Predict the structure.
Amino acid sequence: MFKKFVKIFKYKELRDKILYILFIFFVFRLMANIPVPGVEIFQLKEFFEKFRTMGLINVFTGGTLERMSIAMLGVGPFIIAEIALELLTMVFPRLKEMYKESGEEGRKKFLFYAKLLSIPLAFLEGYGMLRFLSNYQAIKPLPPVLLFENLFLIATASLFLVWMGDQITERGLGQGVSLLIFAGIVSNFPSSIGSLVFSLKTLSIFSLLLFIFFVFFILFGVVFVTQARRIIPIAYTKRVRGMRIYSARQSFLPIPINPAGVVPIIFALSLITFPSFVFNLFSNAPGFLGKIFENIFYFFENPFVHNVFYFILIFLFTFFYTYIVFEPEKISDEIQKSGGFIPGIRPGRPTTEFLKERLNSILPLGGIFLGIVALMPSFVQSLTKVEGFYFLIGGTSLLIVVSVILETIKALESEIQLREYEA
């Protein structure tokens, strides 16, 4: 491992790519510490401790929301826009063709539309966030002109972060937007160390050892499930095409236990946050109606209700999103066209049904895993009383961190192998 690390800095082109990505990270963290003009913070820290969902969003943005920085939305609007368009591929055939069948050019056009959609979403999300915070006196209400100026600044910062993510992606060392989310999550590490050191005086040895045990247990579980695959054997018969003869061979189709990644958690988080925003906006309505909206809002903020709804939504979205990105019919057709078949299963519809059965047998495991991962922070913190290190016990953020690290390591290994081959 150490030799591979040394090799990274051996090649100038690879070294320049890494330094460029680190520079992007520096710019991102610089933006994260530039406050929104004219915003007076009253009780922002207490607010995030009170409202669980907002605290989770704050972790994903690297604490930018807690600082009320110009990068308070992170790349959230773009992610929501991309996911929304992916869902719309089920409704609009031309959009589906662009996304899945038009190659690299179609994919670029699809991402361009996602960026366009993220502009109004950034304004809407920024307005909702500022209104939400001001309603609960976490910040001082803004006059209309200053509010519009800040919304423009916040939306521009979000789009600039997406552009920086594109620059990272073009360097070929991973997905840029994912790396920016990764940088935001791990940026909380220094403050977490400070919180842990500060709380050592009040913690028992048992609580500290229990916390360390949970950290390693969650880390092992996330890495294991992220790498776990269900292997489907594929056999290819001997065939002749033109002047070429292709010999019989064996291959396999790996199906991840969690094919949907962290997208179901993002879906569930967005959906469970939406009622809070909506009912909060109407909670100040006069009379009986305002009281109803206020009670509904606090109902959804109840820890038990929040966790139950969160788990159910994650489980359901795991099935829903997997069938968008993993199409058994298309995979079956591609296997048949390439002269392959699953041993013991006839090509065509029987293969499709076989793949659906295998997928349905592992999706409950993936859904339960994601649900448990999302609820681990509440459980561990209530059991050990250790505050901070959210990204180590917060399975959602840890899942993102582990996935990004594994993808980046693979990309670096490919770059090193390519250069060694050329040499």
Q: What stands out?
A: The two ends are 21 Å apart (CA to CA). The chain has a mean pLDDT of 76.
